Amino acid sequence: MSLEANDSGRRVRLARDAATHDEVVTEVWLQNGTTSESGPLVFRCSELSDAEGTVLDGAEVRFDPPEMEPLPARSSRAVSVSLVSTAAPRPGIYRGTIQAHGAPGLWLPLEVAIEPC
After folding, report:
1. What b/e sequence results for 18-28 when a residue is b if at least 16 CB atoms lie within 10 Å of its CB, and e otherwise?
2. Per-residue pLDDT at 19
3. Largest alpha-carbon pair distance within the chain?
4. Measured CA distances, 9 to 1, 12, 47, 61, 113 (Å)
5. I want to staple 25 with a disulfide (CB 3.0 to 4.6 A). Which of 33, 41, 82, 108 is the partner?
6. Model confidence at 44, in pLDDT bands (50, 70, 90)?
7. Alpha-carbon distance 47 to 38, whole Å?
């Protein structure tokens, strides 16, 4: 995902079974194709909700690393995105948005699928 160009055709997707408490992880590559460094970056995700507005309770989106030193010009770096839950979430499709302080052009849709048992 580019730091400066929005590309709403891409999304991050995490899927897991409703009965498990296992962490699910995927990797996102950030690319700074500009001629200047960007950041430092601090990642966050909006609240996850389904089409009816029901919030995914008991789950947290985490980033590794949660903060990143400035990304040099014309470079790439990976960030792990994971979903951790403290309770069995209700099955459904939940969506939110990943953004990064320090890169105002960066936003990425996140879809979390909780599959029924």
Report:
1. eeeeeebeeeb
2. 65
3. 49
4. 11, 10, 20, 21, 18
5. 82
6. very high
7. 25
